[in-house]
């Protein structure tokens, strides 16, 4: 037995270490995704028997105006959330300076990361209150009246995304702080000898060493934008009149409130496909970039 183990331990050891996580991923993620796809082909209220209807849920979905509103809002989330990595990098570069009092400033920027999304949503609901919120105070200072942004279908999505962008930026800041603390001092020293400083130092010395951190920051940010749900539920519940709903919230609303689990599963399947397409495309670009650099 010992001889067999020694002969094959080069692949048995990593297999045994990976197997628990692989089994958990297969049960929780893959099996659930397959079951959700199966449910999407049925009409089901969550309690009674499932009735096979084929692709009727998908046909109804693609003819549903609310689906396109939710999809448009997801795109707005995606575009605005792309501000999080550069903002996080800028803040990380700021608070990484060895200046007195910078630790306190760093802790202030770190606060939103430890707050629950529900708490962030409640805080920003107060900020946006047109009578006594922070936004109202700012507008009154300039002699204007604050708009009720959470009740305006044209501004509500931007207001909610701004609230969600706060903790997401803090998350990216933490990622970049970890990356900045692992920079090669030899490369930085060599750059200084060659006269690099300021923007040239950042562009040619620092940013190339943060490529992996940037990859993680962008991937997590995009996934976070596509699966946005909790802060919408707290701040607007998809309103007014569904104007701030996204695919994840529409799925929840159809499944839980309308008892249409098949239709909700169809929305979830479409969202899963969108995420999968992005992940495959992004990974392929990263792999090609690494192959060119190797």
Automatic annotation (TrEMBL):
GO biological process: transmembrane transport
InterPro entries (alphabetical): ABC_transporter_permease (IPR051393), MetI-like (IPR000515), MetI-like_sf (IPR035906)
Membrane topology, as annotated: Multi-pass membrane protein
Pfam families in the record: BPD_transp_1
Localization of this protein: Cell membrane
Keyword Chloroplast attached: no
Keywords from the named record: Cell membrane, Membrane, Transmembrane, Transmembrane helix, Transport
UniProt-listed PROSITE patterns: ABC_TM1
Cellular-component GO terms for this entry: plasma membrane
Protein name from the UniProt record: Sugar ABC transporter permease
Organism from which the protein derives: Pararhizobium polonicum
């Amino acid at each position: 037995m010992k001889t067999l183990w020694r002969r094959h331990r080069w692949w048995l050891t990593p297999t045994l270490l990976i197997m628990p996580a692989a089994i958990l991923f297969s049960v929780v993620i893959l099996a659930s995704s397959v079951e959700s796809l199966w449910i999407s082909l049925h009409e089901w209220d969550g309690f009674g028997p499932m009735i096979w209807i084929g692709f009727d849920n998908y046909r109804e979905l693609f003819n549903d105006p609310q689906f396109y509103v939710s999809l448009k809002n997801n795109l707005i989330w995606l575009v605005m959330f792309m501000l999080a990595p550069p903002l996080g990098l800028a803040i990380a570069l700021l608070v990484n300076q060895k200046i007195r009092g910078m630790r306190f400033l760093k802790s202030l920027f770190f606060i939103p990361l430890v707050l629950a999304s529900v708490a962030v949503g409640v805080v920003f609901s107060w900020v946006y209150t047109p009578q006594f919120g922070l936004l109202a105070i700012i507008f009154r200072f300039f002699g204007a009246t604050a708009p009720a942004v959470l009740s305006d279908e044209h501004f509500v999505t931007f207001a909610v995304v701004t609230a969600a962008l706060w903790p997401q930026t803090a998350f990216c800041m933490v990622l970049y702080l970890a990356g900045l603390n692992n920079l090669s001092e030899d490369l930085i020293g060599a750059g200084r000898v060659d006269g690099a400083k300021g923007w040239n130092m950042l562009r040619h010395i620092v940013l190339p060493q943060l490529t992996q951190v940037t990859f993680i920051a962008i991937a997590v940010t995009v996934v976070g934008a596509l699966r946005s749900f909790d802060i919408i539920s707290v701040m607007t519940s998809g309103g007014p009149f569904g104007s701030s709903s996204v695919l994840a919230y529409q799925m929840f609303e159809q499944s839980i409130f309308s008892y249409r689990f098949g239709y909700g599963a169809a929305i979830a399947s479409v969202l899963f496909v969108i995420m999968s397409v992005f992940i495959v495309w992004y990974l392929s670009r990263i792999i090609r970039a690494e192959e060119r650099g190797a």
